[in-house]
Amino acid sequence: MSSKKPHYLPLYEQIKSKLIARIASGEWPTDAVLPSEWDLADEFGVSQGTVRKAVSELTALGWLYRQQGRGTFVAPGESEWGRAHLVSPGQFAELPDVPRPELLAVSRMTAPDDVAQALGGRRGMPLHHLRLLWRVRGEAVALDDVLLPVERFAELDARRVRLAGGGVYVLLERQYAVRVRATGWQFRAVRCGREEAVLLGVEPDEELLSVVRLGVTVDGEVVEWRQRLVRSRHWAWQFDLKR
């Protein structure tokens, strides 16, 4: 006889999963107002208290936000640029353009030791490797190498990324119900390699801004390692520190 106990998920956790699925699928888009707690309780056949606990936790985790007297709304997911923008050097009031991603390749690789450690995984763990080129008004401005654990994101492939518009965070939310925020930013100047120079349209050995960071879920799990190479000769990296 098996000694394993059956897995039981509390009712409010089940409701949380159902609400997240609706947000991730796009049924409830950003800034959409949720049905009332009473209506959700009636729909799911649970108490209002159970719905309230689920909604409160999703609000604390950043999936939802509340406005006094108006209701509960779907919170926006974080941009893959976080609170950063590319602007002309010295132009602090310039309205930034939104970079658009172009998926170049999806492959698999073995994690280098430092990446495995950063992701909290074992040495040599398998990773998805996504390469993205970012453009502003058609001009290449940045190149991303994104590493994601295969065990965490099974069945990820180029088709799924393209269906999500080329964006990694949109893909993770829609396909895996995972929201990611960027953390642990590290900046340094690097020399451009030959392959990167061709993709970015710059001279080999030109100095680029390297930005390495991690992506964590709303409950603190590290699920992404990313390096972004930014053309810094004609662009400045500007942070908006206001929350």
UniProtKB/TrEMBL annotation:
PROSITE patterns: HTH_GNTR (PS50949)
Alphabetical keyword list: DNA-binding, Transcription, Transcription regulation
Family annotation (InterPro entries): Bact_HTH_transcr_reg (IPR050679), Chorismate_lyase_/UTRA_dom_sf (IPR028978), Tscrpt_reg_HTH_GntR (IPR000524), UTRA (IPR011663), WH-like_DNA-bd_sf (IPR036388), WH_DNA-bd_sf (IPR036390)
Domain of life: Bacteria
Sequence ranges assigned to domain HTH gntR-type in this UniProt record: 9-77
SMART domains for the chain: HTH_GNTR, UTRA
GO molecular function, one term: DNA binding
CDD domains attached to this UniProt entry: WHTH_GntR
Example GO biological process: negative regulation of DNA-templated transcription
Keyword Translocase annotated: no
UniProt keyword Transcription regulation present: yes
Protein name: Probable transcriptional regulator, GntR family
Source taxonomy: Bacteria, Pseudomonadati, Pseudomonadota, Betaproteobacteria, Neisseriales
